[in-house]
Amino acid sequence: MESQPRKHDILILGGGIIGLACAYYLLKSGRGVTILERNTLASGSSHGNCGTITPSHAPPLSQPGTVAKALKWMLTPDAPFRVAPRLDFELFGWMLQFARRCNWRDYHRLARAKGPLLLRSRDLLGELVRRETLDCEYAESGTIYVHRDEAAFEAASFLPKTLADCGIVMQRIDAARCRTMEPALNDSIVGGYWNPGDTRLRPDRYAEELARVVKALGGDVRESTAITGFRQGRDRIDAVLTDRGEFAADEVVFALGSWSPQLARQLGLRIPIQPGKGYSITYTQPARAPRIPLTLRERSVCVTSWDSGYRLGSTMEFAGYDASLNRARLDALRRGAAEYLVEPEGPAVIEEWYGWRPMTYDDLPIIGRTAKWKNLMLATGHSMLGVTMSAATGELVAQLFAGGDTALDAATFSPGRFGL
């Protein structure tokens, strides 16, 4: 047991990629930072995702027709988007709010709201990699959304205009150009959408490298430190209670991802986040691995290659905090890849993985101070785009602490939109 008699400047709760990015930008602005992480740094959803940096993902999950698909797929264990049937009133309320946004007006509104954050973060992330010489296999690769169903390809033809309205470039390309750009695709491809502004990196290496820089800048990292509660004043958090003693601080940042709602309840806050479970399989690299990251649209499978490996990932499952590795969903990744790729799997499996993404029903992160607790800043709810949004989130948090102008419209992501 370790007690902490001194008062810290800023405590960051959670050592995932969002917590690390917040720590980096706060340290660069001259603040002192201590990170509390119950496991090891970036061991959650920061670890096993596909590592694409995707302004092209500005449109929200709540597209018209999504709820009908979810209902249709409820009893299909390997469906790309699945809500597991169970009695869960919080999930039911979340899904009602999500369903209300499954219309074209909100779809375009939320895309325009998210676009500036994604573009800012992509640019900052590239600068960060170069400035700090992060060894994370970063490449300005672009991405391709690939189709093998003609009707689905045509139905997505509105996407370039939707993204253009957000300042993001997407180009429709035919089957021949798809295969010229990416020879790893097979002859079933009918067309695709090329996203030249997307980039990629190896997410676990990015997290490791960012952690290295945070420590070098003087960040105090406390791993294997489980948060158990809070000592509360009238309108301030006086201390964070852990299994290694109390940590008092002037300011607290909540960067706990999918675990945010559970701890927030102790502070009387109801953060509208549901854990969206995603899966990935990491292999040694196949001989004909894609050079460009791909999204296999009809199967909702993402494919990313690095010099150090090859990964199939994605899917979305709302099954609470179920900690089992669902073999049906892993097999769906393999089957999906086999429909599109000449060589869908690598020679050897390195890791089978799952993790929970912190999903908000409006598909926007929650970044800003709470009304109830004067020294609490939220930086959570990044849905499926935590790595993509990490740098801009860290910058925004540091700017909010500093006061004055911010590079982004902070009101867009304010906790106040949820009454927090």
What does this 3D model show about the protein?
- Helix content is 31%, strand content 26%.
- The chain contains 12 helices and 19 strands.
- Strands 4, 5, 6, 7, 13, 14, 15, 16 and 17 form a 9-stranded mixed β-sheet that branches. Strands 1, 2, 9, 10, 11, 12, 18 and 19 form an 8-stranded mixed β-sheet that branches.
- The mean pLDDT is 93.
Beta-strand proportion: 25-35%
Task: Give the uncertain stretches in residue-range form.
Answer: none
Shape descriptor reads globular
Query: How is the main sheet built?
Result: 9 strands, mixed
Work out the helix count. 12
List how many beta strands DSSP finds.
19
- What is the terminal-to-terminal distance? 33 Å
Corresponding CATH superfamily of the domain at 71-103 and 140-199 and 275-360:
D-Amino Acid Oxidase, subunit A, domain 2
- Structural class, from helix and strand content? alpha/beta
Cα Rg: 21 Å
| Average pLDDT number | 93
Q: Tell me which CATH architecture of the domain at 71-103 and 140-199 and 275-360 applies here.
A: 2-Layer Sandwich
Index terms:
single chain, 420 residues, alpha/beta, D-Amino Acid Oxidase, Chain A, domain 2, 9-stranded mixed β-sheet, 8-stranded mixed β-sheet, 31% helix
